[in-house]
Predict the structure.
Amino acid sequence: MIKMIKKKMPQHTCEGKIRSGSTWHPSYRACGKTATLEHEGRWFCKTHHPPTQRARLDATWAAKQAKWDSQRESLDEVYRKAAAYDKLVKLLEMFN
Protein backbone atom coordinates (compact mmCIF):
# COMPACT_ATOMS: atom_id res chain seq x y z
CA MET A 1 0.00 0.00 0.00
CA ILE A 2 1.33 3.42 -0.94
CA LYS A 3 1.33 6.07 1.73
CA MET A 4 -0.04 9.41 0.68
CA ILE A 5 2.07 12.23 1.92
CA LYS A 6 0.14 15.39 2.54
CA LYS A 7 2.00 18.58 2.06
CA LYS A 8 0.95 21.22 4.45
CA MET A 9 0.19 24.57 2.93
CA PRO A 10 2.26 27.36 4.36
CA GLN A 11 0.33 28.94 7.17
CA HIS A 12 0.32 32.68 7.46
CA THR A 13 -0.34 34.56 10.66
CA CYS A 14 -2.52 37.65 10.91
CA GLU A 15 -0.69 40.96 10.66
CA GLY A 16 -3.49 42.81 12.44
CA LYS A 17 -2.60 44.77 15.56
CA ILE A 18 -4.28 44.35 18.93
CA ARG A 19 -4.15 47.19 21.40
CA SER A 20 -3.14 46.27 24.91
CA GLY A 21 -1.82 48.19 27.86
CA SER A 22 -3.50 51.12 29.52
CA THR A 23 -5.24 54.16 28.11
CA TRP A 24 -2.26 56.40 28.80
CA HIS A 25 0.44 53.92 27.80
CA PRO A 26 -0.95 51.85 24.95
CA SER A 27 1.03 49.09 23.37
CA TYR A 28 0.26 46.94 20.38
CA ARG A 29 0.93 43.31 19.60
CA ALA A 30 0.35 41.13 16.57
CA CYS A 31 -2.90 39.18 16.44
CA GLY A 32 -1.27 35.82 15.83
CA LYS A 33 -4.37 34.00 14.52
CA THR A 34 -4.10 31.94 11.37
CA ALA A 35 -4.56 34.29 8.42
CA THR A 36 -6.95 33.25 5.69
CA LEU A 37 -7.50 36.48 3.75
CA GLU A 38 -4.98 38.50 1.78
CA HIS A 39 -5.27 42.25 1.33
CA GLU A 40 -2.68 44.31 -0.57
CA GLY A 41 -0.01 41.67 -0.11
CA ARG A 42 -0.54 41.27 3.64
CA TRP A 43 -2.35 38.43 5.40
CA PHE A 44 -5.18 38.91 7.89
CA CYS A 45 -7.67 36.87 9.85
CA LYS A 46 -11.38 37.54 9.32
CA THR A 47 -11.51 39.91 12.30
CA HIS A 48 -8.70 42.20 11.16
CA HIS A 49 -9.23 42.04 7.37
CA PRO A 50 -9.46 45.76 6.38
CA PRO A 51 -12.45 45.49 3.99
CA THR A 52 -14.33 43.40 6.55
CA GLN A 53 -13.52 45.93 9.28
CA ARG A 54 -14.68 48.81 7.04
CA ALA A 55 -17.97 47.02 6.24
CA ARG A 56 -18.60 46.32 9.93
CA LEU A 57 -17.80 49.93 10.86
CA ASP A 58 -20.05 51.30 8.09
CA ALA A 59 -22.95 49.10 9.23
CA THR A 60 -22.52 50.22 12.83
CA TRP A 61 -22.29 53.86 11.78
CA ALA A 62 -25.43 53.59 9.61
CA ALA A 63 -27.39 52.09 12.51
CA LYS A 64 -26.25 54.84 14.88
CA GLN A 65 -27.01 57.54 12.28
CA ALA A 66 -30.56 56.18 11.82
CA LYS A 67 -31.07 56.21 15.60
CA TRP A 68 -29.78 59.78 15.88
CA ASP A 69 -31.99 60.93 12.99
CA SER A 70 -35.09 59.48 14.63
CA GLN A 71 -34.17 61.09 17.96
CA ARG A 72 -33.62 64.43 16.22
CA GLU A 73 -37.00 64.18 14.45
CA SER A 74 -38.81 63.39 17.70
CA LEU A 75 -37.05 66.29 19.43
CA ASP A 76 -38.01 68.62 16.58
CA GLU A 77 -41.61 67.50 17.04
CA VAL A 78 -41.42 68.31 20.77
CA TYR A 79 -40.06 71.79 20.01
CA ARG A 80 -42.77 72.37 17.38
CA LYS A 81 -45.50 71.38 19.86
CA ALA A 82 -43.97 73.60 22.55
CA ALA A 83 -43.91 76.58 20.20
CA ALA A 84 -47.55 75.93 19.20
CA TYR A 85 -48.51 75.71 22.88
CA ASP A 86 -46.83 79.06 23.61
CA LYS A 87 -48.74 80.68 20.72
CA LEU A 88 -52.00 79.20 21.99
CA VAL A 89 -51.38 80.52 25.51
CA LYS A 90 -50.68 84.02 24.14
CA LEU A 91 -53.91 83.93 22.09
CA LEU A 92 -55.93 82.84 25.11
CA GLU A 93 -54.40 85.61 27.23
CA MET A 94 -55.53 88.18 24.67
CA PHE A 95 -59.18 87.13 25.17
CA ASN A 96 -59.08 87.23 28.98
Summary: Residues 13-18+27-95 form one domain.
